Amino acid sequence: MPRTIDWDGDGIVLVDQTALPEIRTTVVTDVDALVDAVRRLVVRGAPALGVAGALGVALAARTLDGAALDAACDRIAAARPTAVNLAVGVGRARAALPGGPAAALAAALELRDEDVAACHAIGERGADLLAELCGEGPLRLHTHCNAGALACVEWGTALGVVRSLHARGRVRHVVADETRPLLQGSRITALELAVIGVEHHVVVDGAGASVIARGLVDAVVVGADRIAANGDVANKIGTYPLALAAARARIPFLVAAPESTVDPATPDGRHIEIEERDPREVCEGPAWNPAFDVTPADLVTAVVTERRVWRPAP
Ligand code: MRU
Known about the structure:
Layout: E1 5-7, E2 12-15, E3 25-28, H1 31-39, H2 46-63, H3 66-77, H4 84-94, H5 101-134, E4 139-143, H6 158-167, E5 171-177, H7 184-196, E6 200-203, H8 208-213, E7 219-222, E8 226-228, E9 233-236, H9 239-249, E10 253-256, E11 262-263, E12 292-295, E13 302-304, E14 309-310
Parallel strand pairs: 4-5, 4-7, 5-6, 7-10, 8-11, 10-13
Antiparallel strand pairs: 1-2, 2-3, 8-9, 9-12, 13-14
Helix pairs in contact: 2-3, 2-4, 2-5, 3-4, 4-5, 5-6
Bound molecules: 5-S-methyl-1-O-phosphono-5-thio-D-ribulose.
Protein name: Methylthioribose-1-phosphate isomerase
Binding site for substrate: 44-46, 80, 184, 235-236
Catalytic activity: 5-(methylsulfanyl)-alpha-D-ribose 1-phosphate = 5-(methylsulfanyl)-D-ribulose 1-phosphate
């Protein structure tokens, strides 16, 4: 499996997420194409969006300067509103712009490399925590959307935890929600689990809570698009019902994400902008298509980052 996002010396190389499970790469060489790729979810998942944002600034700096460069950076940062990593990535490369285009590119490549290291650290820490919370023996896990290698540069956050546990021989089975309407669970997470050889089943989103209620999983582990200062977590629509079900069943609900997803400027979940996508992704008739929901901090057993285990609930 190639890296989800990388730089080939001339442009941003992306595994086109709209084509999955077929693996097809595409190269983006200008800002318009990048903004379009972000909006259409050719590149998606908070950490991958962060790297895309940073590399986008490097792309823009090759041909633009002054107000035009500023406008291009703003446009990239605003291409999707919920995942804070996009704006964080843009900000990181933008801060290096006084050093010229080469400095912006170096900052973006540094972010890319940090993401790889962060995912591995999250995986190990999350695996340690689940072993502590759930005891010995192979685990049955439940995840939503795709927080895997294909949402990051490689390895993944929630699926990074699954990978670390799998490497220890500690995964029995994974339930992956289908994730309507764009099917990140059945198209992307199921593909990743098959590639790494983890036994899994896809369920329709409506089955998630009852799978938990029937005692078929030991813990839920998901990624995040933005974590507010109080620990409220925005993630793909359909995450909140899993957290409710996990609390009812008294099983751990873990959020695995890099520190860059924690947004100190957002006090709580009410301040997180929820992306509204084209209703036609849902059906041809009247539809409402919020792409994310907010899980309140009191339902989160722990947020696992590359630096800490954070238990936001009092
Ligand atoms: O709309 P998407 O596919 O970008 O949504 C992705 C998610 O909700 C992921 O769970 C989140 O970004 C974490 S990815 C490590």
